[in-house]
Design goal:
By secondary structure, the chain is of the alpha/beta class. The protein has one domain: Alpha-Beta Barrel (TIM Barrel), CATH 3.20.20.60. Strands 1-2-3-4-5-6-7-8 form an 8-stranded parallel beta barrel, surrounded by 4 helices. Helix 7 packs across helix 8 and helix 13 packs across helix 14. The protein is globular, with a radius of gyration of 18 Å.
């Protein structure tokens, strides 16, 4: 059994269902250790960047282990409060990556990933230098220190944590799940090159910000203008070509929950959000999933 439930499900050809966390505390971590969701999303792009609270939340999850599925915790993915504008932007904010990783989370999402150089810097900053180099990436830049507290959450030794904390699927044994938001015109124009950066496990298209970038003040939910449909299709095609999991919601109020789930499943969406527990149950039954919640 893997540490990262989301990666394990994707390797089994199954979808991953997510829910957002609105309270970071030790007590809420304990409560959510039995969540219906496969992964819990922590929003720090527009909400508080609160490392002590995140750390307490992770301890609450870990202290209530195991989950119903037998994992130590649900997968936890943090949306970062930095933008992937360029390499310099990411390099100058690596302290944020270090602080977040030290809490023992399992994945991170880089917003407004506009250039492949920014995404390379993101991946390199999350890797330890001793991990195998690949031609498209420089040597890893992550340092010692945060691995000790993170290992306590993953329930492994510090050395084991350092071995396992490497991006999947770049490292087939890696348990770190890195993603990007391709959510504006600049990112859209570079999406094929961004998708080719090794180390990404998932990505989303960020409809709200993509709509703003295309001139629409409120186009977060479908039905979308034609420009946005084309943008989503282009991004998904780029991701599919590199076997990167696509994260998407589909909050069309004219559809039932079952219809929304079926739309996402038939469009080969791998990570589904915004469907609630009922939607996740429908999706799991549809794909004949066997892993317990």
């Amino acid at each position: 059994m893997r540490i990262n439930k989301a990666i394990e499900l994707l390797e089994q050809g199954q979808q991953v269902y997510g829910a957002n966390v609105h309270e970071l505390s030790y007590e809420n971590g304990k409560r959510l250790s039995t969540t219906w969701a496969d992964y819990l999303g922590i929003e720090m792009e527009h909400h508080n960047f609160d490392i002590p609270a995140l750390s307490e939340f992770m301890k609450g999850l870990a202290d209530s282990a195991p989950t119903t599925s037998g994992h130590g915790t649900p997968t936890v993915i943090v949306t970062l409060p930095i933008d992937g504008i360029d390499e310099t932007s990411v390099r100058g904010n690596t302290w944020i990556l270090k602080q977040v990783l030290a809490t023992g989370i399992h994945g991170m999402l880089l917003c407004h990933a506009e250039s492949p150089d920014a995404v390379r810097a993101f991946v390199e900053s999350c890797r330890y230098p001793f991990h195998t180099e690949v031609p498209e990436l420089g040597v890893g830049r992550r340092g010692l220190g945060g691995h000790i507290s993170a290992a306590e959450i993953w329930k492994c030794s510090p050395n084991q944590y350092m071995e396992l904390s490497d991006p999947w699927p770049l490292n087939p044994k890696g348990e770190l799940f890195l993603g990007v938001k391709i959510e504006n015109i600049r990112a859209l124009n570079n999406c094929e090159d961004i998708a080719c950066v090794p180390g990404l496990g998932f990505a989303e298209w960020g409809p709200g910000d993509m709509g703003l970038s295309l001139g629409y003040a409120d186009a977060h939910d479908p039905p979308y203008p034609k420009q946005m449909d084309l943008a989503r299709e282009r991004i998904k095609s780029a991701l599919d070509s590199q076997d990167i999991a696509f994260l998407c919601s589909w909050n069309d109020v004219s559809l039932t929950t079952e219809e929304r789930v079926n739309y996402l499943l038939t469009s080969n969406t791998k990570i589904l959000v915004g469907l609630g527990e009922d939607g996740a149950s429908i999706g799991r039954m549809t794909t004949q999933r066997t892993m317990p919640v």
